Amino acid sequence: MALDALCMAALAQELRGELLGGRVDRVTQPGRCEVVLALHTAGGNRRLLLSAEPGRARAQLTRLDRENPAQPPAFCMLLRKHLSAARLREILQPEGERILRFSFDAQNDLGDSVARHLLLEAMGTQTNLILTDQEDRVLACVRRVEGDLATGKRAVAPGLFYRPPDPHPGVPPLIRRELEFRGQDPERGAAELLERVRAGEYVPTLLMEGDRPKDFSFLPILQYGPQVRSCPQESFGAMLDRFYAASADQAARQRGGELYKTVKALRERTARKVANQSRELAQARDREGLRVRGDLIMSNLWRLNKGMAGARLENYYDPAGGTLDVALDPLLTPQQNAARYYKDYARAKTAEAALTAQIAKGEGELDYLDSVLESVLLAEGDRDLLEIRGELEREGWLRRPRGAKKEMKTQSRPLAFTTSRGLRVLVGKNNTQNDHLTTKLAGRDDLWLHVQKIHGSHVILCLNGGEADPQSVLEAAQLAAWYSQAREGGAKVPVDYTPARYVKKPHGAKPGMVVYTTYQTLLAEPKPPEKKV
Questions:
Q1: Distance between CA atoms of residues 164 and 4, nearest Å
Q2: What is the per-residue pLDDT across 109-164, written as a single tens digit (0 to 9) for each?
Q3: Residue 63 confidence (pLDDT)
Q4: Fewest CB atoms within 10 Å of the CB: 11, 283, 372, 526?
């Protein structure tokens, strides 16, 4: 749901109580339209998430960790320049509007005290996040908007003075329906609700349909009847974390299913191609019959004539002295028919080498696509799925959609666990991550583990210069077995392990493919992890 104006008023009250007077310690931009400000306040450290993503626009306190791109985007760098060490002085909301204005006391390059304003406009497709100076001149924005003098459409771009959007007063649809359900006049009821919100009389409420969050509000909602429960939450921040995390998980599962189907179709197409090539190879290997027919024609030229469709000839290659039916093209002379058989024989001989190479390549592609399918199953969210899709685009399996915006380059984090003896274990979730984990993150003496001869994650047991105890090695091997195709079997499987210095990636190898030497093997049961860190 979109954050409505009344709910935003209650949310602003919570933010004022938690953040006013806080100093900006850090600015990050985990997504194209998301910014996180880390503030040090009297009550401790807080993280303010500002999202300008259409349909998910909001301002909230968050406790969820978000992965950041390797290189901060330009918008993030500008925010850091203007807001680092700035103090949050004021949070304003124009009445009835889905706009929040965060005003900061900052310093310019000369050390002079200046005002900076960060505005969140949470208005559907026009959602934006805008930074302005003390004169309300735009310094930066997430989305540039071209103005139109004919229609009066405002422009939003650096260097222009900020002009608020046209007002859109009105009772939010959810609240209008709720007030009508309760038999109240929507306009008068909404005004009363606003006064109650200003007095602090609101309850962050998550609306649950079964075990799935359906909506949220600042008061219990009764209009849906008993099938939707109103569940009070401790804060707007906790409520919105839960709501949007569930929403993102559901969307990611759907996108993961679609990507899985896409990769599965690619694999089936490749498997059909390999099967056809295998049949062609079998025919090519049976080419001796072509040469024999050519030889028999040449040995019987005296009895063959143009216009014949076939002949039964004595097969002097047959130890038993049998005959062989030889098909002929009646439009060709006997010599030309023999030449055709010799040509087909030579072509089949050449095809055998080519088909053998093509089949080996196809089997490698099938092996690679199997590893990608396993990666999709391990994906934990959109970032993992984007990483897998990007890998498929780089490998030439998928085309980048026309007009698609370039995603911020981000290296997602591997799964992290701790053994019962306190050693850290890292588990890759896809081929790109496996390569990074094995060739970049792992220390030379860290242990590298992988299930033997089947697809699975690269697992690193971090030793930090110490020794690997048997129990930690076993637990790391159990993780390697769990995060592999052996997971469903349940039986013990062989897991190879070796110091990471013995693991190499050959030049030109596909993502996730490595070779290793000087290894040991133990049997480990696929065991789900008890706790991630």
A1: 18
A2: 888 999 999 999 998 888 999 999 999 999 999 999 988 878 878 999 999 999 99
A3: 92
A4: 283
Element (H, E) at 37: strand 34-41
Distance between CA 457 and CA 454 in Å, rounded? 10
What's residue 84's pLDDT?
94
Q: Residue with structure tokens 């310019």?
A: 108
Give residue-wise pLDDT tens across range 467-499: 999 999 999 999 999 999 888 777 899 999 999
Kind of pairing, strands 44-51 and 34-41? antiparallel
Based on the fold, state whether residues 55 and 180 are members of the same structural domain.
no
Which residue has 């063959």 as its token pair?
A: 304
Assigned domain for 103 exists: yes
Is the residue at 314 inside a domain?
Answer: no
Examine the domain organization and report whether 194 and 133 are in the same domain: no
The top-scoring range by mean pLDDT among 254-258, 475-479, 524-528 is: 475-479
Whether the model pTM is above 0.90? no
Tell me if 211 is assigned to some domain: yes
For 483, which DSSP code?
A: T
Q: Structure tokens of 161?
A: 């003075």
3-class SS letters over 260-329 = HHHHHHHHHHHHHHHHHHHHHHHHHHCCHHHHHHHHHHHHCHHHCCCCCCEEEEECCCCCCCCEEEEECC
Total domains present in the chain: 3
CB 432 within 8 A of CB 410: no
Neighbours of 477 (CB within 10 A): 29
Q: Which structural domain range is residue 82 located in? A: 5-141
Rounded to whole angstroms, how far apart are CA atoms 257 and 269? Answer: 18
**Which stretches of 181-277 are assigned E, i.e. beta strand?**
205-209, 212-217, 229-232
Amino acid at 219: L
Do 97 and 203 belong together in one domain? no
In a domain, 228, yes or no: yes
Residue 406, token pair as written in the block: 């370039």
